[in-house]
Amino acid sequence: MPKSNYSIGDPKAEQLIQELVDLCGNEVAPDLLKEIMTTVVKLGREHTDRGDFKLTNNTLKELRHAYRVFLPYREKRKVVIFGSARAPESDPIYGMALDTAKALAEKGHMIITGAGGGVMEAANRGAGRENSFGINIRLPKEQSANLAIEGDSKLMQFKYFFTRKLMFIKESDATILFPGGFGTLDEGFENLTLFQTGKCMPRPILLAEPPGGTYWPHLIRQFEEELMPKGYISSIDMNLFHIIHSVDEAIHHLDDYYRYYHSLRYVNEFTVLRFTKAVTPAVVDYLNHEYRDILRTGDFKACGALETEKANNEFTDLPRLVFQFNKQHFGRLNEMILWINRNLT
Questions:
Q1: For the structural domain made of 75-257, what CATH number should be given?
Q2: 273 CB contacts (<8 Å, ≥6 apart)?
Q3: pTM attached to this predicted model
Q4: Alpha-carbon span 123 to 5, nearest angstrom
Q5: CA-based Rg of the chain, rounded to a whole angstrom?
């Protein structure tokens, strides 16, 4: 929520900020615009390091541009596909990425990649230019955009990895990771960390590799033999992701995940899961028996939109499942969402 007491403490500055807010003519978030402009004035008054200003300026410009590019497509589900930029066209991984993206596009999904070569090129090729986004990164050794997305209005150029990674998560509904190097692993662990800590909404995270591959099994073995025995992660965390070996498995898993599940919203102490089909009493009873370990207190309850959601006109027609989540066992939450999708009849 906006801070009601967040101000400069200077009447003249406050008046100028309010005039700028009024000039924007934005009726959705004038309070937040006022905070943003207040922050800019505070920054200008408090800092003298030009590098700080350059970083802040570039960050805001990158985010504003990315918001504008994605805005017309917000109603379509999107899948971000990561993988090695060095995978040649002859590599089975390249072929699987191409076929997966093509199948997803045929199902109505759009594809987001890092716009480079290898797996990224395969995914943009498979989806087709009309169903593709590219979020490129400017590097000292310049990464050129692949030909499947080069010149498209949905290709974005980023200076900073952190803003680029933010957009990958913010604008997508699912993640598919193919084998790759440090960059792929960085994105994969970022996705897992954000989900594990509740800093992103629930999503399918799929580790993809053709049959017989060893990339993901070796990594999972490290989880099981090193991280879990030492308590660095728990067995529950293993439910944050799934390994797949075919295009059909990828499509089946995404279909399962979003069969009825729509979105999640936190409203005060409550966690609200929205579905496109009403959660039946039998399902609620099962959850109250089998998934009580994720509750902080109380029970699972089926209901309609909460008052806060109604006030914001947030998908008010969708049925809900409301509960007080402990905000720790996100692997179990992920497992539960899949179970509900598969058992609503």
A1: 3.40.50.450
A2: 261, 263, 264, 320, 321, 322, 337, 340
A3: 0.94
A4: 48
A5: 22
